[in-house]
Design brief:
Layout (H helix, E strand, L loop, with lengths): L1 H18 L4 E2 L12 H13 L11 E6 L4 H13 L8 E7 L8 E3 L4 E4 L2 E4 L2 H11 L5 H5 L2 H4 L2 H7 L4 E7 L4 H15 L4 E6 L4 E3 L1 H16 L3 H9 L8 H11 L3 E10 L1 H4 L5 E11 L10 H21 L17 E8 L2 E8 L6 H14 L15 E8 L3 E3 L11 E6 L2 E5 L1 H6 L4 H11 L12 E5 L1 E4 L1
Parallel strand pairs: 1-5, 2-8, 3-7, 3-8
Antiparallel strand pairs: 2-11, 4-7, 5-6, 9-11, 10-11, 12-13, 12-14, 14-19, 15-18, 16-17, 16-18
Helix pairs in contact: 4-8, 8-11, 10-11, 13-14
C-alpha cells in the first residue's frame, strides 16, 4: 500500500513539474529599462498605447511588425504604434526575432521551452512551435545568446499587455549573414503555415550620428524596407554599415512577407525626443507588414468608367433641377466595392468644384453620387452650380487607392502619386493630376498640400505626416 502511495505521489510530482515552466529566463531589464513595479509598467504601456491616434492604425491582416528595443523612455512610444496595431488580435503565438548584442555567434538560437519572466509574470514559450521551427531550420538553442540579451526581453511586456493570450518563441540571431537569414526565413514559412502567428522584428535604426545625419540615413533604410529591397539591406548589414542593428530580424521578416505583404510605416523618431541631445541619436521605427488581399487587383473597365461618368452627370442634373437623387443599381461588381473617390467639375476648362472621400467608406457608385452633389453644391470655394451651367459642365472622376504613409518624401513621383498631408488634426489632399496640370516640382507639390491643409508650407519638413495614393483618373 505504501509503495502505491509513493508511486502516486511520484506521478503527481512528475505531472506538476512537467506543467511548470522549464528553462525560466529571469528579467534582466526591469528597473533600468522599464518599470519594475507591474502597476507602474501597466500605466506606462497603456499611456503609450493611448497616445497612438486611431487614424494611424492600419487595416488588414498584419503578418509582422517591426519595433524598436531601447529603454521605454526612449523608444516606448514608437513601439506602441506597432503594438497598438495588433492589440487584442487573435494570434496564437508570437515569434520574436532579435539580434545578438552581447554574445557573438553564427546561426540562430531558438528558446525551446519554459518562459521569459517580466513584472507581469511569465510569458510562456510555445514549445511545440519552437520545436517545429528548430526542425525546419536546423537551428538549436544556445543559452548564452539569451542570458543578457535585451532585444527580446524589451518586447515581452508589450506582448503580454496587448496579446495576453499569446505564447512566445524568442529567437536570437547571430552575425547577420545572408545564408543564415534565408535559412531562417524558409524554415519559419514552413513551420508557421496554417497557424495564427505574428512575427516581431526587433531592431533600432542607425546609432550615434547627429540628428540630421541619422534622419537622412534612416529614411534611406526605411525606403529599402518599404520597397522590399532585402538583398541590398542584407548586403549593407553584412558589411557592418551603421544602418540598423536588427538586420537579421528585418531581413528574415521581409523575405517571409515578400510578394505576400506590403509594408506600412507607422512611426519614425529618434532618441532626441527624450534626451534633447541631437549630437548623438539612435533611430526608432514602428512598421507593419500587412498581407495583400487574395483578390485580384482592383481595376475599372472602359464600360465601368463610362457608367460612372454618366452617373455623375445624371446625379448633378437631377439634384440641381429637382433636388432629387437618381435611383441606381450598378451593372458591374467593381462599382459596388468600397473605394475612395473624388469628383471634379470644370466649366470651360476652369475648376467649378471638387469634393470626395479619401477613405473607402462607401461603395464606389455611392461615393461618386455623393461627391457629385457635394462638388456641385457644397464646395465652399464656389457658389452652387445653377441650372444655366449644367450644359457647360465637364466631369472628371478620380478613384483612389488606399493611403500609404511614407517617411521619405523622395519616394513621391509627380504624376503618379496624390498627396495627403496631416498634422494637428488638419488634413489636406491633392490629386495626382493637379501637380501635372500646374507643372509643380515634388517640393512645390508638398508645399501646396500643406497649404491645402491650412498648415505652413514647410510643415512636411517638421512633423507633418505624409501619405501617398494612386488614382484611376478619367473624364
Amino acid at each position: 500500500m505504501r509503495k502505491k502511495i509513493v508511486f502516486c505521489v511520484f506521478l503527481i510530482l512528475v505531472f506538476v513539474s512537467a506543467s511548470w515552466p522549464q528553462g525560466l529566463r529571469k528579467a534582466q531589464l526591469a528597473g533600468p529599462w522599464y518599470p519594475k513595479d507591474p502597476e507602474a509598467l501597466s500605466r506606462l504601456i497603456d499611456h503609450f498605447l493611448k497616445n497612438v491616434p486611431a487614424s494611424t492604425l492600419p487595416s488588414g491582416n498584419i503578418m509582422a511588425i517591426i519595433a524598436p528595443h531601447a529603454g521605454y523612455v526612449f523608444s516606448g512610444q514608437v513601439a506602441a504604434y506597432a503594438y497598438k496595431s495588433i492589440q487584442n488580435k487573435n494570434y496564437e503565438s508570437v515569434v520574436i526575432l532579435a539580434p545578438s548584442h552581447q554574445f557573438g555567434f553564427e546561426g540562430c538560437s531558438i528558446y525551446p521551452n519554459g518562459g521569459y519572466e517580466t513584472p507581469f509574470g511569465i510569458a510562456q514559450v510555445d514549445a511545440f512551435l519552437a520545436a517545429d521551427i528548430s526542425k525546419a531550420t536546423g537551428f538549436g538553442y544556445i543559452a548564452q545568446a539569451h542570458q543578457a540579451e535585451h532585444s527580446v526581453e524589451i518586447q515581452v511586456p508589450f506582448v503580454q499587455r496587448v496579446l495576453p493570450q499569446a505564447k512566445i518563441v524568442p529567437i536570437v540571431m547571430g552575425i547577420p549573414k545572408k545564408a543564415m537569414i534565408i535559412r531562417l526565413a524558409k524554415g519559419l514559412k514552413k513551420a508557421t503555415v496554417g497557424k495564427k502567428i505574428l512575427i516581431i522584428a526587433s531592431t533600432d535604426l542607425s546609432h550615434f550620428y547627429t540628428k540630421e545625419e541619422a534622419n537622412k540615413k534612416d529614411n534611406e533604410t526605411i525606403a529599402l524596407i518599404q520597397e522590399f529591397k532585402t538583398d541590398e539591406l542584407i548586403r549593407k548589414c553584412e558589411k557592418g554599415e551603421n544602418i540598423l542593428c536588427g538586420g537579421g530580424p528585418v531581413g528574415a521578416t521581409l523575405l517571409i512577407g515578400k510578394d505576400k505583404a506590403g509594408v506600412e510605416i507607422l512611426r519614425y523618431s529618434d532618441s532626441s525626443e527624450a534626451s534633447q541631445d541631437e549630437s548623438r541619436v539612435v533611430g526608432y521605427l514602428a512598421a507593419a507588414l500587412i498581407a495583400k488581399p487574395s483578390t485580384k487587383e482592383f481595376h475599372l473597365s472602359e464600360q465601368d468608367k463610362k457608367e460612372l461618368l454618366q452617373l455623375a452627370y445624371s446625379t448633378v442634373n437631377l439634384y440641381i433641377q429637382k433636388n432629387k437623387v437618381p435611383e441606381y443599381k450598378p451593372k458591374s461588381e467593381n462599382l459596388s466595392q468600397n473605394c475612395g473617390a473624388f469628383v471634379t467639375l470644370k466649366k470651360h476648362g476652369q475648376l467649378r468644384g471638387c469634393i470626395g472621400f479619401i477613405e473607402p467608406v462607401l461603395p464606389l457608385h455611392q461615393a461618386v453620387m455623393q461627391a457629385s452633389i457635394y462638388a456641385a453644391c457644397r464646395d465652399s470655394r464656389f457658389l452652387p452650380v445653377t441650372r444655366d451651367e449644367l450644359d457647360d459642365l465637364e466631369v472628371e472622376i478620380s478613384v483612389l487607392s488606399p493611403l500609404k504613409k511614407i517617411i521619405n518624401p523622395n519616394r513621391i513621383t509627380v504624376g503618379r502619386h496624390g498627396l495627403v498631408i496631416a498634422k494637428d488634426g488638419k488634413r489636406g489632399l491633392l490629386l495626382p493630376q493637379v501637380a501635372v496640370e500646374q507643372n509643380w516640382t515634388r517640393e512645390t507639390f508638398l508645399e501646396r498640400a500643406c497649404l491645402k491643409a491650412g498648415l505652413p508650407k514647410n510643415a512636411w519638413r517638421s512633423g507633418a505626416e505624409i501619405f501617398v495614393f494612386e488614382a484611376i483618373v478619367f473624364h
